[in-house]
Amino acid sequence: MGAIERYFGFDEHDTDLETELIAGLTTFLAMSYIIVVNPIILGEAITLEGYGPGEVRQMITVATILASVVAIFVMAFYANRPFGLAPGMGLNAFFAYSVVLGLGVPWQVALAAVFVEGIIFILLTAVGARRYIIELFPEPVKFAVGAGIGVYLLFLGLQEMQIVVADPETLVTMGNVATSAVAALSVAGLALMLVLHARGVRGAIVIGILATAVAGWVLTALGVVSPGTLTPQGSIVTSVQYDFTPLVAGFVDGLGMIAEDPLVFVLVVFTFFFVDFFDTAGTLIGVSQIGGFLDENGDLPEIEKPLMADAVGTTVGAMIGTSTVTTYIESSTGVEEGGRTGFTALVVGILFLLSLVIVPVITAIPQYATYIALVVVGIIMLQGVADIDWQDPAWAIAGGLTITVMPLTASISNGLAAGIMSYPVVKAAMGEGDDVSLGQWTLAVAFVLYFATYFAVQAGMISF
């Protein structure tokens, strides 16, 4: 234990083994849903001759877990940061629905595009280019990211809890707790978690997640609700297809298919790269803010190390059959529980590895139970608004747009884009254009060009 404490610097980071263990368990429980969800999404696009859909999803499950483990171990031992990584939500949907099913790109080629993106990330990280670009972010954007992610987490959590539901006229409205068993149990679980947190109970988030999940299963067993209402839909996975070599073979085939349509390939690589770059940057800065890792300029010291983790994870993940690996905003749950070192990440990685044999246990935890934690952490992350100078128009506009655009467009990168594009324009309008660096103007223009291309493709003005 002494060697572990010295290696990860427990004393330096004012933490201890018990705290790190609880933090790692908390983060894992909050993000373990990806083990089930990622195979479902990618399974819509990936087909293998001679294998049924269920077998393909099981292969992707193994690939998801292994890619996460590789990235998390790099985060733990190289970066020594308490962040969890896995194939990213949103990016996996883009892979399946937009690239493969939408554009008709073979899934093998899509994996090759993710692989190329990962290689580019490794090279850019190694020479310090990614760190340089992230440090160009305007100060108000850096300090607003945490609060923006907080609102985003709140919104995601309340939706999964069915407290916020869709409405045809107002887009969203209040869910009916009286008629929704999920909403009623989620509110009870949230109340428990908030009370425990307010009283300073260690492991409050883990206790809340597990208590809510157990309550859902007990109510189902007693016949209070029908099966599938408070428990995961479908049958629980009882066995896993561990042989994922057909996915590896597909990736190899994809490398040889790039030349068939290089223009589309470049477009796919660019989109994966652009979205993942800024999603990861926003997550790292936002989660680091609540952990007290940022310096006085809002920068994360040695940020290139955690950036290397997602780059390596993405590269390896593509080779074994999954989409882009990224840092998870759910890492904030573990940081809130006190996780401060790479040992927290190591615990997350070990639990992911163990999940290879306990997939049925992971799939037994309802998603709404884990999303309750996001609401609690989201509330806590709102404290970031206090770091913004609301009297300065440039800070208020750039920071305000960063915070609001994230949840309203369900995208961290879009929130960053809004702040980055608005900041130099407002500064110039205030007569303080000299305070904006050439790099910040370049970054803003890059976003304008990206969105112009994106919207043109969406409108059918550009086709491939």
Automatic annotation (TrEMBL):
This is Xanthine/uracil/vitamin C permease. Pfam families: Xan_ur_permease. The keyword Transmembrane helix applies. Coiled coil: none annotated. The keyword Transmembrane applies. Keywords: Cell membrane, Membrane, Transmembrane, Transmembrane helix, Transport. Its main location: membrane. It is a multi-pass membrane protein. GO terms for cellular component: plasma membrane. It is found in: Cell membrane. One of its GO terms (molecular function) is purine nucleobase transmembrane transporter activity. InterPro entries: Azg-like (IPR045018), Azg-like_bact_archaea (IPR026033), NCS2 (IPR006043). Belongs to the nucleobase:cation symporter-2 (NCS2) (TC 2.A.40) family. Azg-like subfamily. The chain crosses the membrane at residues 21-46, 58-78, 85-103, 109-129, 141-158, 178-196, 203-224, 236-256, 263-287, 307-329, 341-362, 368-388, 395-418, 438-457.
